[in-house]
Amino acid sequence: MDARHTTDKSKLPSRYVTEGPDRAPHRSYLYAMGLTREQIHQPLIGVASCWNEAAPCNISLMRQAQAVKKGVASAGGTPREFCTITVTDGIAMGHRGMRASLPSREVIADSVELTMRGHAYDALVGLAGCDKSLPGMMMAMVRLNVPSVFIYGGSILPGTFRGQPVTIQDLFEAVGKHSVGAMSDDDLEELEQVACPSAGACGAQFTANTMATVSEAIGLALPYSAGAPAPYEIRDRFCATAGEMVMELLAKNIRPRDIVTRKALENAATVVAASGGSTNAALHLPAIAHECGISFDLFDVAEIFKRTPYIADLKPGGRYVAKDLFEVGGIPLLMKTLLDGGYLHGDCLTVTGRTIAENLAKVAWNANQDVVRPSSQPITATGGVVGLKGNLAPEGAIVKVAGMPPEKQSFAGPARVFDNEEACFEAVKNRTYKEGEVLVIRYEGPRGGPGMREMLATTAALYGQGMGDKVALITDGRFSGATRGFCIGHVGPEAAVGGPIGLLQDGDLIRIDAIQGTLSVDLSDEELAQRRAAWQPRANDSTSGYLWKYAQTVGPAVTGAVTHPGGAQETLSYADI
């Protein structure tokens, strides 16, 4: 190594770009961008953000990335900023665009991987702000296994409608009220203009904030960093610290797979259940585990949900939003009472270089708040999300019960079958369904959609009509983190591969019991076998382009709807090239 350079890059990926006479052409491109000799020979740190102008959840990420870059530079690294895509669920919701949402998780992970590999960056700080970009960025981190720190862009502030706090959930449900004449055109327009008053992701414990909570619990994000709303200036301090911290991780060679262990995944599932988080976590946690080569499927997640108390009174099932949680003590307050109650593994390593228990050692209980209850005094004794299994879902299903009284957690009724979301939404909008029915939305799974769409528009319309607890819904697709009511998603196997949900007929009696964890149909094995023999695959219209490609490779929801063999099949990690 050139004696002028103080950084030993002999084991860092960037040596392939910056070191030795053979790399003079490579260095010339770096000089063209204004880098100095010293900067070129420092570690090159990828600063990846999902910035775009598609939605408020992403709009502040570029600003925050500048603070990360300052932190990297101050600690002796050379930041290299790049962006990847985001498909924002709120805008993709309720139309064909939602088929792009879950596939975007894979594109985010893949594109970050390719950028890091192609330019031989040594470490990564990843910024994400929306439902699929958070897990996608974390998947890229553990896949690459270079020292990494995750940064959440922060949540939106609650809106105010005629003196009352509101979120985007209220607006989706207002569409249902409007459809039955319970809200005027003028009132709906007024609400849409005030529901989202700032930058940031949807403010309640929907999917983005659920996965933000996961980022701290799993150890990839700095304590408190995932709770501060996007407009708060303190976010820039967290970002700068993340830039500094990734350089410490690089010096100590602490890698994501040292942090994301089986125990860390269990911690993540625990905070999801305790906070009444999104059912989508049961899709994303197995996918993150898959990147590490760890087997951790929907049933493993559901087992943790079953033994975890539900203690955070957060919307959509509760009263508060992410801003409220941050201001009373943040995610560490939630984690500390879970740790004290024996529900978390305190010995898991984090990006601070310390363990969960060490990070939480000085967190004091805040008795002057009611956002989070002590783990010994839960809202309910079991988690706000429940796994289901039965002859209708041999590969499992998931339902969010946070905020639902026990007497509402079982349901039996005749099936009303729809082969896509639009058909069901039309029936809801026109009120051609009946109280007591189980609305079945199928051929919306990972392959069948393709893309495993979310169904918030339909469920919110039901609530707006006052029918949210008078019918149940099941789908091989997904339900939004903002969904309320008895809505069962991720039913597997999906209809497109001949799963039992694809064999249902109108009038079949479906039984759902979230307390016992069962989802079944009153059909004999013989009747199901006869229907399966007569079943024919159903084509969809995604016959080319990315959605076609996705449908060829995507696996079942039970293991995370992943698209490649994962860490278990890896023979050489990028970090070790």
UniProtKB/TrEMBL annotation:
The keyword Lyase applies. Residues 1-11 have a biased composition (Basic and acidic residues). Homodimer. Coiled coil: none annotated. Belongs to the IlvD/Edd family. It catalyses: (2R)-2,3-dihydroxy-3-methylbutanoate = 3-methyl-2-oxobutanoate + H2O; (2R,3R)-2,3-dihydroxy-3-methylpentanoate = (S)-3-methyl-2-oxopentanoate + H2O. NCBIfam families: ilvD, PRK00911.1. This is Dihydroxy-acid dehydratase. The modification N6-carboxylysine is found at K132. Transmembrane segments: none annotated. HAMAP family: IlvD. The lineage of its organism: Bacteria, Pseudomonadati, Pseudomonadota, Alphaproteobacteria, Hyphomicrobiales. The active site is at S480. Functions in the biosynthesis of branched-chain amino acids. Catalyzes the dehydration of (2R,3R)-2,3-dihydroxy-3-methylpentanoate (2,3-dihydroxy-3-methylvalerate) into 2-oxo-3-methylpentanoate (2-oxo-3-methylvalerate) and of (2R)-2,3-dihydroxy-3-methylbutanoate (2,3-dihydroxyisovalerate) into 2-oxo-3-methylbutanoate (2-oxoisovalerate), the penultimate precursor to L-isoleucine and L-valine, respectively. It comes from the Bacteria. GO terms for biological process: isoleucine biosynthetic process; L-valine biosynthetic process. Residues 370-561 form the Dihydroxy-acid/6-phosphogluconate dehydratase C-terminal domain. GO terms for molecular function: 2 iron, 2 sulfur cluster binding; dihydroxy-acid dehydratase activity; magnesium ion binding. The gene is ilvD. Its EC number is 4.2.1.9. Binds 1 [2Fe-2S] cluster per subunit. This cluster acts as a Lewis acid cofactor.
